[in-house]
Amino acid sequence: MHDDPERCTRIVAAKDERFDGFFFTAVLTTKIYCRPSCPAVTPKPRNMRFYPSAAAAAGAGFRACKRCRPHAAPGSPDWNVRADLVSRAVRLIADGVVDRDGVPGLASRLGYSVRQVERHLMAELGAGPLALARMQRAQSARVLIESTPMPFTEIALAAGFSSVRSFNETVREVFAMTPGELRAARRPSGGSPQPGLISLKLPFRQPFCPDNLFGHLVATAVPGVEEWRDGAYRCAFRLPHGHAIAELSPRPDHIVGRLRLTDPRDLTAAISRCRWLLDLDADPVAIDDQLATDPVLAPLVRKTPGRRVPRTTEPEQFAVRAVLGQQVSTAAARTHASRLVQAYGDPIDDPAGGLTHLFPTSRALADLDPEALAMPRTRRLTLMRLIEALNSGDLTLDIGGDWNKAREQLYALPGFGPWTVESIAMRALGDPDAFIPGDLGVRQAALRIGLPEKPGPLTARAQVWQPWRAYAVQHLWGTSDHAVNRMPPF
Description:
Layout (H helix, E strand, L loop, with lengths): L4 H10 L9 E4 L4 E3 L13 E4 L2 H6 L3 E2 L13 H4 L3 H10 L2 H14 L3 H12 L3 H19 L4 H7 L5 H12 L3 H6 L12 E7 L7 H9 L6 E4 L2 E8 L2 E9 L3 E8 L5 H11 L6 H8 L6 H6 L11 H10 L5 H15 L1 E2 L9 E2 L3 H4 L11 H16 L10 H9 L6 H10 L12 H10 L5 H7 L7 H9 L13
């Protein structure tokens, strides 16, 4: 989009929030860069330049606007729609892979050489992996500066900087303010109300329908690992250096997030996982426009625009839960998962609520006695083969993975049919076009609104919904009165 100056100029003039994160506007006269919806006076077209990423704008010598805070804009939805090298790289960088493993580690995860990864990122984003990771470190540092009383030396280490000097230079270069000035200028709500708690706002594009998103997460919540408390969905999940407890509360124009981390170095990954969980980087207008071209789906889209796909913070965890949920009710699946958690999960301390454990890892479940599971023998075999594949490396599930390769690996396991594989592709891997025509709820919804009920004809009919069939599923599920479609009471 940044290669079309006329279109970008029209978007900036309209101050269209929908395009925040798609591109960034740099102003030659002020040497600042902004998001398209910046409320400042629109610059003259001849003074504007457009960049595909904040890192590219910063690399060209521009600093971030203090008014619209472009570095905090929702991420480009392009990276969650595609499964190519660049998209996978962006998702992994957002998860902190470069900070932990360096560019060689990123390239290894992607299966490409360092040179190829750098070349492709430069071509599409105007910045290499180090520059993109540096911009993330700067944003993580700003969150810690503004929302915690941590000393700057500790913030520098937590945000991933190699030295305090590098931390100071990057903050000044990106934000045109010193760390001390950022802390002094922080907004009244920026302070952390409790020791060890990091407060932040997670932006999204309008429209936003929280009902099925939070309804689904809460209705399927595993006791001890997830809960709904005081108007917030709370969950505990693993991170590279420890674990996190996240509290996520919906508001009309953002998500209020509160994070409790065992290691502040995990802040970048924790924010990325929360955004991924709630599908906050989606482009709801593009999705709804496509689905509404179908006259059968159009009334559903008009009724609840902006539906998101509820995802997961840990892909391997969801795969285990998907097997536990095969051909049983939501309540039964929760019961099976809860038993695993109590027997094999790691205990944690939650001073603010009722979270007691982390979901067990595949390594911990390797000691599982299948005879102790109250489920059919074939499903026990399916679960054990899944655990073996995860532990041996024959199956790789992560947000930066190849969707088609993961599907092939899943189908190779006994007991993995279309429902299980596509559920994992939708909610664990984030494929926006994952489709489960054999799901009972989808079939019942199709029958109610006049679509073909059988999987084959329904799949053929759903071709017009591509590449957003995962979102069509949310609208189909929304036709029932199931708890997954209702916002939990505050």
